[in-house]
Amino acid sequence: MFKKDISAGSKTKVKSSVQRGIRAKVLETYPLLEPYIDEIMPKKEQLDLVKLPDRVSLYTLPPQPLFYQHMDDPLLPHLTLIHRYPHCFPRIRIDRGAIRFVLSGASLMAPGLTSPGGRLPDPSAGDDYDYGKSDLEPGSVVVVEAEGKENACMVGVLKMGTREMKEKKKGVAIDQGHYLGDGLWNLGLD
To answer: Which residue ranges does the record assign to the PUA domain (predicted)?
Structure first.
């Protein structure tokens, strides 16, 4: 979606009633953000809506990008927000071989997640397992981490559930997402 560099379109202030609705939707979608929501979206601060190409809306707390949304799709966190609060989102991990493909804008394929370096939610894992115990369904927003790297490299919506990925071990896991170095990451909001 953001393979090429993009330029910001019109910028408008978000009404306080709409801002409360966005805040409620964020808490509904990402309940682990609740302790940090006042840091992320303070009630007294003004959110901005930046229009981007292809009907994408970017919500910012100038100059910090927070969430983006394509038409009526779910609100997706920007990678800078994920890097500040990494354990507040459902996560999966790709192996080292998939990193270069993800960072070049390719679709994330299931073999990169089901190989020995990849990690998916595992109901049989111990309590110290970082990737969750319950399988994720198609349409879930998920953060993609990379084997051996500290920060997340991508965020997107699952095309197939994690249980199906474990069974089939092939196919597209995430079709389009926001990744390090893409147009949204490089967007200047000054």
So the answer is: 90-181
Instruction: Give the three-state DSSP class for 149.
Output: coil
Residues 116-145: tens digit of each pLDDT: 999 998 888 777 777 888 899 999 999 999
Beta strands in 42-151 (DSSP E): 48-52, 56-61, 64-70, 76-77, 91-94, 108-109, 141-146
List domains and CATH numbers for the chain: 11-84 (3.10.400.20), 89-179 (3.10.400.20)
Largest CA distance in the chain: 49
Record the pTM: 0.91
Q: Are 172 and 110 in contact (CB under 8 A)?
A: yes
Task: To the nearest 10°, report the CA torsion of 21, 22, 24, 25.
Answer: 120
Angstrom distance (rounded) from CA 23 to CA 42? 10
37-42 long-range CB contacts below 8 Å, 24 or more apart?
Answer: 40/66, 40/81, 40/85, 41/66
3-state DSSP assignment of residue 15: coil
Is the CB of residue 49 less than 8 Å from the CB of residue 12? yes
Kindly report each contact of residues 15-20 with a partner whose C-beta sits within 8 Å and lies 24 or more positions away, as own/partner: 19/46, 19/47
Residue with tokens 């981490």: 145
Measured distance CA(51)–CA(12) in Å, rounded: 9
